[in-house]
Design a protein that fits this description.
Blueprint (H helix, E strand, L loop, with lengths): L4 H22 L2 H18 L9
Helix pairs in contact: 1-2
């Protein structure tokens, strides 16, 4: 079973946005930190953060 990294990245990004909305709405910092972690993992898995740019 091969995991599609682009789909996983999108799911983590959406999950991070949901956590951020819950964190801001309830003023709970745990959800805000979970959102930051999900978004950072999404960037790394999707290759957007460490992928070299084409010139």
């Amino acid at each position: 079973m091969k995991i599609d990294r682009r789909k996983l990245s999108g799911y983590l990004l959406i999950l991070g946005m949901v956590f951020l909305t819950i964190g801001i709405g309830t003023k709970n910092t745990a959800f805000s930190w979970a959102a930051v972690v999900c978004i950072m993992i999404s960037l790394v898995v999707g290759g957007r953060l460490i992928k070299p740019r084409r010139k």
